[in-house]
């Protein structure tokens, strides 16, 4: 499918605004509220608001979900694919060679110590990182770097997508970048990307200790001809290691680390656990003023230990102690809460003492 060529920095914002308007009008034509669409995607309502007003570029998975929920027959995705969202910008000189080799690599093996891999970062997460870097006081430079980083991700979902294996130090999951909401969306994005057939995500837990194998981030790139290059990066520069013997040593250390890291399934469970913890860290930012709370139908005025939930809070199911309505609420993802309720109805949770 032919993409619209970029003509300047204004194209991205114009495309985002037009797409956002089309999405909003389609949603309204279906009689669906913004909150309801956000719940079904799922994503946060503020994130969907930013997409509809054109201040955020929608990602492939979100557009696919909207296509399905709004029953547009692929029209939304077709429009999204017609647009070249990311204006090409120059990378720093020391990074240009890496980007050129990465763009042709058939497989990428990566270990990250402190941050989520650039190939798996959300727009908000990437922007938060650049905001505290050397571009901190230059909004235009921050935007250019965010665009450049996201542009590198398009290959992961294309027909020539490389095999990507990413091992993340547990530190990368637990460092809250951009605040709980940004970090939560980032971890949710990791879970989505980890379900793609060409992407494997594993976590190196704290318990590995000295067996972590690497003290810095490392990337191994395999070219179409089979040549493997190793790349490591600091804040100020990056360097390639191309000596075949050294590359073999790094590859061996990487394979050992991968064998000791959590499996993809266990890694997903840890990511989900960290994400749910962030959900409750951020509960003070959720507006409960219009929440409609309810208890179980058999709970009378003399009931003892009762909980109550609200069904109309976008993106989450809050649960609180009915005897302490002004107290804190635990927040659960709608799908997690529904799984719990289904399990209770099926008798999967035996009563205390049984």
Instruction: Label the overall shape.
Output: globular
Strand proportion, as a percent range, falls in: 5-15%
The CA-CA distance between the termini, in Å, is 61 Å
Mean pLDDT score, rounded?
Answer: 80
Class inferred from helices and paired strands: alpha+beta
Give a quick precis of the structure.
This protein is an alpha+beta fold. Helix content is 44%, strand content 14%. It is built from 13 helices and ten strands.
How is the secondary structure organized here?
Layout: H1 10-29, H2 34-40, H3 45-52, H4 60-70, H5 75-82, H6 93-104, E1 107-112, H7 123-131, H8 139-151, E2 163-169, H9 170-174, H10 180-194, E3 199-204, E4 218-222, E5 228-233, E6 238-241, H11 244-260, H12 264-281, E7 293-294, E8 307-310, E9 317-321, E10 330-332, H13 334-345
Parallel strand pairs: 1-2, 2-3
Antiparallel strand pairs: 1-4, 4-5, 5-6, 7-8, 8-9, 9-10
Helix pairs in contact: 4-5, 7-8, 10-12
Primary descriptors:
alpha+beta, 354 residues, four-stranded antiparallel β-sheet, 434 Repressor (Amino-terminal Domain), Endonuclease, Chain A, six-stranded mixed β-sheet
Characterise the protein shown here.
By secondary structure, the chain is of the alpha+beta class. The chain folds into three domains: 10-82, Orthogonal Bundle (434 Repressor (Amino-terminal Domain)), CATH 1.10.260; 93-279, 2-Layer Sandwich (Endonuclease, Chain A), CATH 3.30.870; 289-345, no CATH class. 44% of the residues lie in helices and 14% in strands. Strands 3-2-1-4-5-6 form a six-stranded mixed β-sheet, with helices on both faces. Strands 7-8-9-10 form a four-stranded antiparallel β-sheet. Helix 4 (60-70) packs antiparallel against helix 5 (75-82), helix 7 crosses helix 8 (139-151) and helix 10 (180-194) packs antiparallel against helix 12.
